[in-house]
Amino acid sequence: MPIIETGKLTFTYPGSSKPSIEGVSIKIEKGEFALITGPSGCGKTTLCRCFNGLIPHFYPGEMNGEIVVAGMNVADNPTSDLARHIGLVFQNPENQLFALSVEKDVAFGLENLGIPREEMRKKVDSALRLAEIYDIRERPPHELSGGQQQRVAIASVLAMNPEVIVLDEPTSFLDPLSAKKIFEVIYDLNKKLAMTVVLVEHRLDLTARYADHLIIMDNGKVILDGEPREILSSEETRLIGVGIPKATRLYELLRSDGIKLNTRIPLSSDEMAGALKEALTR
Amino acid sequence: MIEVNDVYFTYPTGVAALKGVSLQIENGEFVAIMGQNGAGKTTLVKQFNGLLKPTQGKVYVNGVDTTKISVASVARNVGFVFQNPDNQLFSETVEEEISFALKNFGFNEKVTEDRVTWALNLLSLTQYRKTSPFMLSGGERKRVALASVLAWDPSILILDEPTIGQDYQQKERLRQFILQLQTQRKTVIIVTHDVEFVAECNPRVLLMREGQVIADGEARHVLTNLDVITQASIVPPQIAQIFLQLCDLDLPKEVIDVYEAREILVNRLEKKIK
């Protein structure tokens, strides 16, 4: 059974003549690493806001169609209930952090749920370890680097032990190495804890390799939905103007020149380098 | 031209952000400043438009010592577009936003009007002329900030993280746009983490770490030098990663462009087949 399912989901912000998302029908299965991409303004962020109930509970507007998350109808359940099942991490961690210490920030969501102290301690510690920030738990979040702050935001979500974590361009303010480490933490959560991950990203060079489900949106609609390797090698994807990973692009260019490498369509430089090595030393 | 001579800068809090930086940027150059958060990139570019003045050392912009003149008069030559457009937008309409600086610089109404129309058109913002900047998307607000700077035609343009939140097509438009500015002999300086964007543009790269410049050269040299970029928390662009892994196969090492990679590989693999 899918953990997120939408049926012809449409949402229009007040004062807008055109829906921000229109007729979106997708299924995200439990344990998947789903990647959502598409040009700016394609509706990715609006869709994320529907996943945890910010739409329709906080953002006014007109919603039509169905959305069910972890068996709960989003429109009929308050965000506080949804928050136990699905957590959101935003682009800029500064907007999400406010407490005087890292661990207080991470504990905040649990405090609101009224969880006993002992249990809370355990959950917070475990979340701090998973996000690899246990050592800095007593520091004020605003003194940390952007990469560390984003880990705090992730840990705050993990403390709630949700089934799904949704991340909306979580690394755009980070340097490339910090970004890579964040993606590795997320990938670990997915592989080791079987947590469902929904990642919204423009930069497929950095992220396509982790995904087992790719959704491409354009103009509020889902244009392509399926296996990342197939989608990224399709002509249609290139035409929408999605930034295809350079390794995949190189593979396609060589194929159009009549050079067929002995590999499945590569999503990372490692896969492409391996295939080239084999071809060059054959 | 920008000339930086052994510049040190310490913030009032005691943080030493620049520790002995010397460099020259010629007119018409395209330079990308890269490095970890906190390496001193933004502090350095703020010296270029006089927003910050060196604690020690000298910065000359077009031959003028920045400590000798006001920020406003440096700004006439140096346009600065901030990372977060919201730090720079404040007017009620896009049109007012763009005309603000022009009026301050004393351009007459006719010239102001013409320059605003030109800048709106250049950045595909004409339809938003009467719109509030705050009604626009993040990417559009970034374009408004850029338009408002370009309108007064500075000879040096500094863009802090211009590709954040921009999709692939918008980045491609930005790249074309920078190329166009270069044909007009404008100096373009970007501060960025976006290695793939830099790989596509191949500008001169200044790599910073802990307040110092640790590498300075063409992108293809700098971004393929694994030792030095790792020190600056940079990951090589994907094409470079591929060629670094093929290094014992007698292929060129300094490859960052996908089309160049294609040409090299087609040559080698076709020879092999024959």
Overview of this structure, please?
The complex is a heterodimer of chains A (282) and B (274). With 282 residues, chain A is of the alpha/beta class. Helix content of chain A is 40%, strand content 21%. The longest helix of chain A has 18 residues, at 176-193. Chain A is globular and about 65 Å long. The model of chain A has no long low-confidence stretch (mean pLDDT 91). Chain B is an alpha/beta fold. Chain B has 3 domains: 1-77 and 154-233, Rossmann fold; 85-153, no CATH class; 237-274, no CATH class. In chain B, the strands form 2 sheets. Chain B has a 6-stranded mixed beta sheet with strand order 6-7-8-3-9-10, with helices on both faces. A 4-stranded antiparallel beta sheet of chain B has the order 2-1-4-5, with helices on one face. Classes of the chains: A alpha/beta (282), B alpha/beta (274). The A-B interface holds A 38-41, 91, 145-147, 169, 172-180, 202-203, 205, 241-243, 245-247, 249-250, 253-254, 257, 259, 268-270, 272-274, 276-277, 279-282 and B 35-38, 137-139, 164-172, 193, 195-196, 199, 230, 233-235, 237-239, 241-242, 245-246, 249, 251, 258-259, 261-262, 265-266, 268-270, 272.
Average per-residue pLDDT of chain A, rounded, comes to 91
Report Rg of chain B.
Answer: 20 Å
Subunit organisation of the chains: heterodimer
SS field, number of helical segments of chain A: 12
Low-confidence stretches of chain B: none
Largest sheet of chain A: 6 strands, mixed
Strand percentage of chain A lies at: 15-25%
Low-confidence stretches of chain A: none
CATH first level of the largest domain in chain B? Alpha Beta
Topology as H/E string of chain A? EEEEHHEEHEHHHEHEHEEHHHH
Alpha-carbon distance between the two ends of chain B: 52 Å
- The rounded distance between the terminal residues' Cα atoms of chain A is 45 Å
Helix content of chain B: 25-40%
**CATH homologous superfamily of the largest domain in chain B - what is it?**
P-loop containing nucleotide triphosphate hydrolases
**Spatial strand arrangement across the major sheet of chain B:** 6-7-8-3-9-10
The total number of structural domains of chain B is: 3
Strand content of chain B: 15-25%
**Global geometry of chain B:** globular
Name of the CATH architecture of the largest domain in chain B: 3-Layer(aba) Sandwich
What is the name of the CATH topology of the largest domain in chain B? Rossmann fold
